[in-house]
Every structure is written in structure tokens, then in C-alpha cells.
Batch of 2 targets.
Target 1
Amino acid sequence: MIESSQNNNKSLSGLRVLDMSRILAGPNATQILGDLGAEIIKVERPNIGDDTRKWGPPFLKDGNGDDTNESSYYLSANRNKKSITIDFTNPDGIKLLKELIAKSDILVENYKTGNLKKYGLDYTSLKADFPNLIYCSLTGFGQTGPYKDRAGYDFLIQAMGGLMSLTGVPDGEPMKTGVAISDIMAGMYMNIAILSALNHRNNTGEGQYIDISLLDSQVAWLSNAAQYYLTTGDVTPRMGNAHPTIVPYQVFQTLDSYIVLAIGNDKQFQKFCSFAELNEISEMAEYKTNQARVKNRDKLIQVISKKLKEKTSKYWISGLEAMGVPSGPVNDLEEVFDNEQVLSREMIIPMKHADTEQDIKLVGNPIKMSKTPVSYDISPPVLGENTDEILREVLEYNEDKIKYLKERSII
């Protein structure tokens, strides 16, 4: 749709995304699109910006070791973007935003249902003037249904969407995950929808509206846990670190720490028993098959738990790896980012940042592509860092027009 100076070996080169999303779900998703070569223009409120800029400590340190205005939370989801500030509550700001929409392929927003309608920035108001625009709304509960006007947050969605009922020890309180996974997964579904809509537009020339809900996404990715309930009518149990339908498949304490044992079939169980010198149970009818092990879970776990406490984690992991039995350590984040496999896969990346003299470290993109690899071109921008650049290069504004907008606090 638009001309772009970006390197043509990027899979989404030539696409421009107007990113009006904040917090995590939308920004994380558009960051991925940016890594794949799309130009991401992040639209923020003047003097305020994305809420997560202030979600700290911790904050990025400047060259003197003092806190900047950029939180680690914000840095996690805003790489490969340009920041422009626009007050679209003002008619001149609305006009400016519509000019940017005319130059864009995709618009992403996560305002409450109906909030943008009063500014004429909802899809219904825009589609006649921009028929090939792909417009994506990401909300807590979607654009329809009795909850459509409610605000939705990851923690709330984990609770309402059933995830917390499955997380935590069986006799303890329900627990959220340590990462805002409902937000992250909703963004992933959003990107799948965007790429599908782009394919449709390539075939027909038509844009379309995408309605993504955090609750829908959470329910969808319950996956096999959801199907357990739908198949049996029984509420899927909370199992802590155990698995409802595979045994042994959980955390075990060793002599010095914890490991995960993830035995997925009967052959692996035989190998485990051989290495653990538990041959006497490997052929017993109550343990020989996974179905039998699930039925006799409690007795078997007692035997395995006692055995694993006799040796160190290193002994078990190295020995079981040699046998082809899946096992591994329970790493903290220091251990994760010291891990040779993680490092070899370039899951830590250095980038220059406007607020500090040193490179900052960011989490790398897991997508590895042979012809159109991801790239890391733009560090998470400071608020409004690219406002003048975007107005000059995208909209071809002259200096007088930019000065006019600044004097009236439109940008």
C-alpha cells in the first residue's frame, strides 16, 4: 500500500501500523510486527504517554546512574517503534490522526468499547473513508455481549477465564501466573488475525474490523484443560505442578534443589526406572502404562519422591539426559539468562537508547526465519521522540505547521 525505505528482506516491510494501544497486550503484539519489519508509529498522549512508562521501579538508569522516565515494563514491549504525541481530544488532533490513518495499513487500539466513537475514530466512522484499513480493537470483553462495557485487566481475566482455578497447589488459594499471560496471548491472537486480514486484503483489496477480547483469548487457550471439562463434565482439577493426565510429570525435590521430570510415554518411564534403580516397579501392572500410573498416582509419586531425594539435581539431570528421559532444572531468571542455550539463541539483545550512554539489554524475539529474519532497529522511544520526524517524512508538514501544532499543545 505504501512505499517504504525499509530493507526488503523483512517479511512485513512496507506495512505501516498506527499503534494506539497502551499497557501490554497491544504493545507487545505490535513490537513483534515491528521486529518483522513493519513501521510502527506509537500514538501517545502529550506529556503523559503510555501508562507503563511510569510503572516502576525499576527504571532505566541514565549515564549518571539516575532513574530516567522509562520503566522496565515499558521497555519490554516497545522496541522497533516511533513515538508521536497527539491530543486527539482536540479537533486539530483528530484531523492530524486521520491524516496518519490515511497513510497507514493497520490501526491497533485498546480503548474501552465506544470511547473512540465520540471522536469519530471508531471503525464505523472511519471505514467509508478508509475502506482498505485493517482496524483492530483489543478490549477486556469484546465489542458485544453483556460485559462489553466493562474494563478488563490481565489479573481479572486470569480469574474470570478459569486460569487461576487451574494454577496453584491443590489445597491452596488459586494463583495467577507470574507473567501477564492473558495479555500476551490476546496479543498473539491479534497478530494472527492481522496477518489473516492482510492476506484477505491482498486478495480482495478490502480492509476489515478485528474484535479481540482478553476473555475470549483466555478461554480459547485453556486448550486441553478446557477440553477435559467439555469431554467429561467434571471440573478440571487444580494439580499444582502435576499433570492431570500424565504421570510422572511434575516437580520433584532432590538432595539439593528441585527438578522437573516430564515423562511423556511408557518407554521413557522404563528408562527412568532403569537409571533410578527402580526396576522392580517398571513392570508392575499398576505402573506399566500411563493410564495405570494416573490411577495409582499417589503411591507412585511417593516412591519416586523418596528416590530422587537421595541424589543431587545435577546427578539426575545429567544421567536422565543421557538416557533420553526429559528432565531439567527449575531456573530463576539469573540462571535463565546465563543458560548457554538461551545465549546461543540470542535471546538477550543489546540496543542503544536515547536516555543512557550504555547499551540496554532487551529480550530477543523467538522467531527465527531463514529468508526474512527479525531485526532490531529502533530502541524503545522516549515520549514523543519522533513527532517532528513523522510529521515531516510521513505527512510532509513544513516547520510552520509543526510550530502551529506545538503552540496549541496538539502535539
Note: The mean pLDDT is 95.
Target 2
Amino acid sequence: MRRSALSKNKVLPGFTPTLGYTLTYLSLVVLIPIAAIFIKTTALTWDAFWEIVTAPRVVASYKLSFGASLIAAMINAVFGLVLAWVLVRYSFPGKRLVDALIDLPFALPTAVAGISLAAIYSSNGWLGAWLEPLGLKVAFTPLGILVALTFIGLPFVVRTVQPILEDLETELEEAAASLGANRWQTIRLIIWPVLLPAILTGFALAFARAVGEYGSVIFIAGNIPMVSEITPLMIITKLEQYDYSGATAIAMVMLVISFVMLLVINLLQAWVARCNGGYRP
């Protein structure tokens, strides 16, 4: 009786067809394209594969892409948390406008973002004209890549942390204060354990987006070999040369490194969730 009652209350048509649709969709969208990368790479011998993926120019692009993405995600984790806190805990004129602007990198075409950033930070741009005399060159340098990756990754942290802050009851903080806790103790023992899983999630999303970003970076990077070339550009270059095996080889290395780093972040997130009693955003 109980089983039939539960079955009637299900909105979806049942576990078996739902699972079938899910696996089919996942295979078509994710698994088959990823498998194609590995299959195409098998056309190369091990020596040829190793020569392609360890070329000095390619290795330099790995360091730049993953290093800049990691730093940009860290910056967004800090300032995204601050921005989310301000939007949730304070009221001020123009708050709705600021909240709407957070989503601008989502809606803005990446090429438009790249051209805008390059124009602003170039030597005759609004900010570049002031920064370059101070010895701070942004456009067409690795620093410009970092700026672009920070720009496109900020919404992931803010929109991940913001709902958790909205659900966090201020009564808990008031209760802690009434029991004698100072601000640092309240943050460390009450607020931080709840926000940390959401911060890690936003960090992982921002990092994943930054690693694969191409459009907004290509215009401000300058694409100087061994200096400001990102890995997606190396893949595009191989494709333009009709070197499909070489492109998939670099893509496979990038895929494996990204998967390992995201796995580490997810394991860290799971560990934090266990320490917090199983809470996850």
C-alpha cells in the first residue's frame, strides 16, 4: 500500500525511463565527445604524443592557463564572498543595479568582453593610460589574462555564496554574541563552517570556466609565444594547421589535469561537508 502511494506521488514517469533518458543525454553531450578526444589521440605513437604535449611552447601555455585560472579563482573566492555579503546584509542606493551587473559576464559575449578589456587597459585606454606610466602594463601581458579570467569568473562565486548567506539566520550570530562570543569567534565558529562548502563550489566553478576560456582572453592576451599564449589558443593553432591529432593530444592533457584538480576540490568539499555534519549547499 505504501509503495503504491509513493508511486502515485511521483511526478516523473519512473526510475527506469528517467535513468535511461539521463544516461542517453549524458552520453550524447558529455561522454561521447570526451571519448572521441581519447580515441583520436590513439592515432599518435607514444613518442609523438609526448613530443607534442611537452613542447616548450605548449608547456608554457599549460603553466599560464592553469596558473592564471587558479589565481583568478582565488581572487574571486575572496572578493566574491565580500560582494555577496554586502548584497545580502546591507541596503544601499543602487543595490539592485549592482546585483544585476554581477550577471553581466554571463550575458556578455566573450569576444565583446575581450575587446572591451583590451580597449580599457591598452596604452591609450581609460585605465591603461594611467597604469602604464606607473610601470604597470596590463593589456597584452599575462596580467591582462588574469584580469579577463577574474572578470568572467566572479559571478560563479557570488551566485553560489549569495543563497547560502540569505538562508543563514542572523539569530545564530545574535545568540553567539549573547553567549559572549566576539566577532572573530562568530565568524570562525558560526558563519565560516556554513559558507566554506559554497565558497569551494564557487571556486571550482570559476576555475573550470577560466581554464577553458578563450574568447575574452584572446583579445587582451597579445598571444606572444612563451609569454601570453593560453592552451586553448594552442589547440586552435593545431586545428588551423589541420593537425587534429596534435590538437586532441593537447586537449587530452588539459582535460586530465582539469579533471584531477576538480576531483581534488570536490574531495576537499566533501571532507568539509563531513566536518560540518553533512551540510552541503
Note: The chain has a mean pLDDT of 85.
